[in-house]
Amino acid sequence: MDETKHGAWMSPSAGLASLLGKFSDAARKYRVEWWILVAGAAIILAVALMTLVPSLFTSYDPVAQGVGPQMAAPSAQHIMGTDNLGRDVNARMVYGARTILGVAIAASLLSALIGIPLGLISGFAGNWLDKVLSLVMDSVYSFPGLILAIAFAAMLGPGVINITVAVSVVYIPTYFRLVRGQTLQIKEELYVEAARAIGARKSVILAKYIFPNVIATVVVVFSLNVADAIMTEAALSYIGLGLPAGIPDWGMDLSMGKKFLPSGVWWMITYPGLMIMTLALGFTMLGEGLSEILNPRLQEY
After folding, report:
1. Beta carbons within 10 angstroms of residue 36's beta carbon
2. What is the per-residue pLDDT for 13?
3. What is the CA radius of gyration of the chain?
């Protein structure tokens, strides 16, 4: 049997050509939205590479003091300069990516793991349970997100786990409200009624008929929530409610750098700010691109 003819085997060159063909087809179909998604994904992958292989980007220890002159301007030896303790700013940016990306993604995942099941149960069950859960979530949602995160961070204290929990609380109502609203609509569809008629259990209906129809929107919201979580984590660290001093963090470096800006030391605040803005922009672009591509109305064009 000719394996190549029947598609059981594909050479690397043929696989690459097929991948490029699919990429080109998607670019023609979705146009600007596709390139927004690709640009966002490229930014995220670049930062993710920094977290996985930091040695590719710096040879300095991010917490080692005196690796260079204090507050030295960017140079060939220290491409982003040094801070007031003689630490390499580029190393702080590279290793700080692991901190902020890890906290933001973990917080968004925790929010989704709590908010999605609660939204499914609330929308599907209805009655008093729906009223109680909706009241609780609306109460949480009524607080400004940053104020709520500050309150929880101050109560829990510094630490990676504590700051993750503090940030995650902000976004649980977002997933709950989104999933509940879609569940209320989907559970009235004919295929759900048919599943009830043949005796399908409630858990089966939720898992096989309702959840698959809300997951696409959840993916979009997740990307946008990670972008917002990055800003929230940086804000908490900026005001001193984030992580311990020994952990590299962009928000903490931003706070420290502002003290020396009047002295002309611009690099200590510029690079952390740019990194926070760029990473948040990457997730925002990814979310916006996914939102447009996953929109069923685009199939009409």
Report:
1. 21
2. 64
3. 24
What's the predicted TM-score (pTM) here?
Answer: 0.83
**Contact in structure between 265 and 71 (CB atoms under 8 Å):** yes
Residue 54 DSSP one-character state:
G
Q: pLDDT value at position 125?
A: 83
Tokens of 88: 């390499």
Please tell me the distance from the alpha carbon of residue 205 to that of residue 200, in angstroms, as a whole number. Answer: 7
**Contact residues for 40 (Cβ-Cβ < 8 A; gap 6+):** 281, 282, 283, 284, 285, 286, 287, 288, 289
88 strand-pairing partners: 82
- Where exactly are the structural domains of the chain? 32-300
CA dist list (Å): 82 to 181, 261, 270: 50, 14, 12
- Residue ranges of the chain whose pLDDT lies below 50: 1-8, 297-301
The mean pLDDT of the chain is 84
Tens-digit pLDDT profile for residues 195-229: 778 877 878 888 888 888 888 788 888 988 999 99
Rounded CA separation 114/280 (Å):
23
- Write the single-letter amino acid at 75: S
pLDDT value, residue 4: 46
198 by Cβ neighbours in 10 Å (0-12 / 13-18 / 19+) ranks as exposed
CA distances from 169 to 137, 211, 244, 265 (A): 10, 22, 21, 36
Q: In what helix (H) or strand (E) does residue 30 lie, and over which residues does it extend? A: helix 12-30
Fold held by 32-300: MetI-like fold (1.10.3720)
Q: At what angle do helices 267-293 and 211-238 cross, to 10 degrees?
A: 170
Among 81, 108, 55, which residue's Cα sits nearest to residue 286?
A: 108
Q: How far is CA 171 from CA 152, 227, 228, in A?
A: 13, 12, 9
Q: Read off the pLDDT of residues 153-206 as tens digits, 9 standing for 90 and up.
A: 888 888 889 999 999 999 999 999 989 888 888 888 788 788 778 877 878 888
Can you give the length of the chain in residues? 301
